[in-house]
């Protein structure tokens, strides 16, 4: 994926400027922002189905994967949902300074009107058992969720078992986050 280096640098500069105040990322990770975080935010692109129009990112925080995906796929309508108002203000600042076409909703997903998304992403968001009811609310039938999970992904899948009835689940390795995994859930009904 060809993302202009200047754009990544401007995003990284904003992260460095805001991070001491609102801790968007662990300070120890910030030196490797481009390889540790930005690259991670490009991984879901491979799994976005053709024809998708509306993308909703759950718990966008510092903007991964929302910001890389918005830069790389400007043709989609992107919505970032972040309950923490300070983080949502940061995301709005990124959108303004990088001229990104993204809508930021400073709300809890539980309170947000159903989004009818074609694609939902979430990275380091919440266990599957907590995420699935939110997918039922915001992901349309026939749509796809792309979830970036840490090393506990297998336990999360086992724990969610019955709740996964309405979804077809596949898992994929990730090049950028060690023993994490990408879970792709297609909503069947
Ligand atoms: C661990 S952070 C991950 C942020 C980002 N996706 C990343 O990987 O860097 C999880 C974020 O989800 C937000 N969040 C948690 N529960 C939420 C909810 N119910 N509705 C909206 N945002 C929520 C938190 O405020 C937090 O910023």
TrEMBL record:
<protein>
    <recommendedName>
        <fullName>Ribosomal RNA small subunit methyltransferase G</fullName>
        <ecNumber>2.1.1.170</ecNumber>
    </recommendedName>
</protein>
<feature type="binding site">
    <location>
        <begin position="109"/>
        <end position="110"/>
    </location>
    <ligand>
        <name>S-adenosyl-L-methionine</name>
    </ligand>
</feature>
<keyword id="KW-0949">S-adenosyl-L-methionine</keyword>
<dbReference type="GO" id="GO:0005829">
    <property type="term" value="C:cytosol"/>
</dbReference>
<dbReference type="InterPro" id="IPR003682">
    <property type="entry name" value="rRNA_ssu_MeTfrase_G"/>
</dbReference>
<dbReference type="Pfam" id="PF02527">
    <property type="entry name" value="GidB"/>
</dbReference>
<comment type="function">
    <text>Specifically methylates the N7 position of guanine in position 527 of 16S rRNA.</text>
</comment>
<keyword id="KW-0489">Methyltransferase</keyword>
<dbReference type="InterPro" id="IPR029063">
    <property type="entry name" value="SAM-dependent_MTases_sf"/>
</dbReference>
<feature type="binding site">
    <location>
        <position position="59"/>
    </location>
    <ligand>
        <name>S-adenosyl-L-methionine</name>
    </ligand>
</feature>
<keyword id="KW-0808">Transferase</keyword>
<keyword id="KW-0963">Cytoplasm</keyword>
<dbReference type="GO" id="GO:0070043">
    <property type="term" value="F:rRNA (guanine-N7-)-methyltransferase activity"/>
</dbReference>
<feature type="binding site">
    <location>
        <position position="123"/>
    </location>
    <ligand>
        <name>S-adenosyl-L-methionine</name>
    </ligand>
</feature>
<comment type="similarity">
    <text>Belongs to the methyltransferase superfamily. RNA methyltransferase RsmG family.</text>
</comment>
<keyword id="KW-0698">rRNA processing</keyword>
């Amino acid at each position: 994926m060809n993302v202009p280096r200047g754009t990544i640098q401007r995003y990284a500069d904003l992260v460095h400027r805001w991070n001491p105040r609102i801790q968007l990322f662990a300070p120890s990770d910030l030196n490797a922002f481009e390889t540790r975080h930005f690259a991670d935010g490009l991984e879901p692109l491979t799994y976005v189905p053709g024809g998708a129009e509306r993308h909703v990112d759950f718990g966008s925080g510092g903007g991964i994967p929302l910001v890389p995906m918005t830069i790389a796929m400007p043709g989609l309508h992107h919505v970032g949902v972040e309950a923490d108002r300070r983080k949502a203000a940061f995301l709005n600042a990124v959108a303004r300074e990088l001229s990104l076409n993204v809508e930021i909703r400073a709300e809890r997903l539980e309170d947000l009107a159903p989004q009818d998304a074609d694609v939902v992403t979430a990275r380091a968001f919440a266990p599957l058992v907590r995420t699935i009811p939110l997918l039922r609310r915001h992901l349309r039938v026939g749509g796809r969720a792309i979830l970036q999970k840490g090393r506990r992904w297998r336990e999360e899948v086992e724990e969610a078992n019955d709740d996964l009835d309405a979804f077809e689940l596949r898992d994929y390795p990730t090049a950028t986050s060690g023993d994490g995994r990408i879970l792709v859930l297609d909503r069947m009904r």
